[in-house]
Amino acid sequence: MSPSLVPGSADAAAPRAGSEFAADMLKALDTRPRSISPKYFYDSAGSQLFDAICELPEYYPTRTEIGILTQCAGEVAQLAGPRAEIVEFGAGSLLKIRLLLDAMKEPARYMPVDISGDHLAGSAAALRRDYPGLDVHPVVGDYTQRVLLPVPRAGGGRRIGFFPGSTIGNFTPREAVHFLEVAGQVLRGGALLLGADLVKDPAVLHAAYNDSAGVTAAFNLNLLARANRELGADFALDQWAHYAFYEPRQQRIEMHLVSRRAQQVTVCGQRFDFAEGEALHTENSYKFTIEGLRALAMEAGFRPGPVWCDARQLFSVHWLYAPES
Ligand code: AVJ
Questions:
Q1: What one-character DSSP code corresponds to residue 56?
Q2: How far does residue 285's CA lie from ligand 1's centre (Å)?
Q3: Which atom from ligand 1 is nearest to the alpha carbon of 219?
Q4: For the domain that residue 41 is a member of, what is the CATH number?
Q5: Is 62 within a domain?
Q6: Which atom of ligand 1 is nearest to the CA of 220?
Q7: Is the shortest distance between the CB of 53 and ligand 1 below 6 Å?
Q8: Per the CB 3.0–4.6 Å rule, which of 29, 278, 294, 317 could disulfide with 304?
Q9: Containing domain of residue 210, as a range?
Q10: 165 Cβ below 6 A of ligand 1
Q11: Which helix (H) or strand (E) holds 216?
């Protein structure tokens, strides 16, 4: 039995987050327009801020997806069949995976793939305690790159991918197809359960990324705070503005950090100039139509199955059949 391809890096090969962050930040500051991957939001402070975002009244995706998963879990369990092996891309919320595990018949194995080993260890311990029959097998790796899953498939059941939260929206459409192609290889013969945020009234989208409590602003600014902590940078946080808006032609929210005045910053001992109003692009969060998402999946070789939505059509959860071979 050969191990299968997963997007991510194998345990031993995982790069040090610090040095990768340093290299990517220096590269971002040297490029025009300046932009950096949103994966650097998630140090421990950023992960806590993200959890706070999920509780905000304006941020509908998390609670809406949980509602949908609660409704469709029985049907999902039927589709998955007995002794399924679940591969989660990103060790997300324990609540979401529990909804699936509780509905499934004798789930055999749970393999969360995440860049944060600490995050993985915490959730693995809790799940092992609560699901004694389940083989919990975390994989430290970056699922946005491809690598090998270290273990052969669990015997008998189907391999089911789980990619909730509309994290797929952080990829450009091209990157999303590439991710899905790699995921399709990992999951071949099985399926992917995918959460995708939907195109909707721009005012609703705008509010979700411009909350009145300022938590999303703090989450965005934490990237600069993290650079100060880890890269010896000297960003003056009060000289930077959180700027998030919906771009309807590309169907995406863009988040930026905008310099409030002309200023110089030092990062890893190097100086960089920012003009007043110059920006660092920190995140894209694409929104989808149901048909558009299904078309992307088909481009990557998946066959679309059932789709579940909330009554207001805010969010969608898709069952996508992976290629057979
Ligand atoms: C985790 C990527 C799905 O795009 O809504 C929340 C991250 N950024 N608020 C999203 C995020 C700002 C979130 N994803």
A1: S
A2: 6
A3: 12
A4: 3.40.50.150
A5: yes
A6: 12
A7: yes
A8: 294
A9: 18-139+156-228+288-325
A10: yes
A11: helix 215-231
Q: Which amino acid is at 203?
A: A
Amino acid, res. 42:
Y
Interval 48-94: pLDDT, tens? 999 999 999 999 999 999 999 999 999 999 999 999 999 999 887 88
How far does residue 18's CA lie from ligand 1's centre (Å)? 22
**Residue 322 domain flag:** yes
Nearest Cα to 293, choosing from 169, 165, 162, 164? 169
| Residue whose structure tokens are 């590309």 | 250
Predicted confidence band at 154 (pLDDT cuts at 50, 70, 90)?
low
Q: Is residue 266 part of a domain?
A: no
122's CB contacts (< 8 A; 6+ apart) are none
For ligand 1, whether the C-beta of 169 sits within 6 Å is yes
Q: Which single residue is written with the structure tokens 């660092």? A: 280
- Ligand 1 pocket test: pick from 56, 63, 285 the residue with the most ligand atoms within 8 Å of its Cβ: 285
Residue 161 C-alpha to ligand 1 middle, in angstroms? 20
Within a domain: residue 275? no
Residues 319 and 69: beta-carbon distance below 8 Å: no
- Classify burial at 167, counting beta carbons within 10 Å of its beta carbon; exposed 0-12, middle 13-18, buried 19 or more: buried
* Number of domain units in the chain: 1
- Looking from the CA of residue 61, the nearest atom of ligand 1 is 5
Query: pLDDT tens digits for 278-297?
Result: 999 999 999 999 999 999 99
